[in-house]
Amino acid sequence: AQSVTQLDSHVSVSEGTPVLLRCNYSSSYSPSLFWYVQHPNKGLQLLLKYTSAATLVKGINGFEAEFKKSETSFHLTKPSAHMSDAAEYFCVVSGRDSSYKLIFGSGTRLLVRP
Amino acid sequence: GAVVSQHPSRVICKSGTSVKIECRSLDFQATTMFWYRQFPKQSLMLMATSNEGSKATYEQGVEKDKFLINHASLTLSTLTVTSAHPEDSSFYICSARDPVGTGVMQPQHFGDGTRLSIL
Fold first, then answer.
1. How far apart are CA B88 and CA B15, in angstroms?
2. Is the CB of A43 less than 8 angstroms away from the CB of B93?
3. Record: contact B95-A100, CB cut-off 8 A
4. Along chain A (114 residues), what's the average pLDDT of each consecutive run of 10 residues?
C-alpha cells in the first residue's frame, strides 16, 4: 500500500525566510508524488509533481521539491516566504491502479509572520 | 487553464432534506471525476470515483445509498446527499481528471468545494 506522512501539522516562518515542509512516502514501487496547496474554503491547486523524471522538481510560485529515494522523502521548499503563501499544503501520492486515485497526507498549515 | 466549477459553494438546510452538488469541467471532457470529503482541519478523504456512463466506485465505509453519484455526461458529475443529517455537515470537494496525457500524467483539477451545513 502507498502512503505519505507529513511530519509537521503546523509550520510558522517569518516573511522573507525559507520554507521547509516535510513529507515522507511509503511505496513498494517508484511513486508519483505531488504537492497541492489549499487556501481557506477553496479547492486545491497543484504546486508541482514528480513522475520519475528529474529528482529536483520546480513548481509554481517559487516552490520546489526534491525526490530522495534513499530517504523516502519529498520535502517542499521555498527560498523566501511571502504572506500570500499562508495556506494548507498537502503531500500526495498517486495510486497505480487504473483510476490513479490520489492519496493525501494529513496536511501542513503554513503560517507566515510579518 | 483547465477549470472545474463546483456549485453551490455553500448550502444550509434542514435535517432530512436532500442536497445536490454539481461538479462541471468547463473546458475539457472528464470521463473520471472524484468526490472528496474534508472535515475541519483534516485532510481530504476520497469518497468515490465517478465514471461517465457507469456506476460510481465507492471507497470502503462510504454509503452508496446515502451519497448518490451520477455522471451522466462528460462534463458533469453530481453528488446527492440524501436525507441529510447534522453529521453529514462537511466540506465536499470534487476533482476532474484531465484527459491530456496518459495515466498518472493526467492532472486532476479541483473545484472550490461546497460547504454543507445541516441544521
1. 10
2. yes
3. no
4. 90 98 89 91 88 87 95 97 96 75 92 96
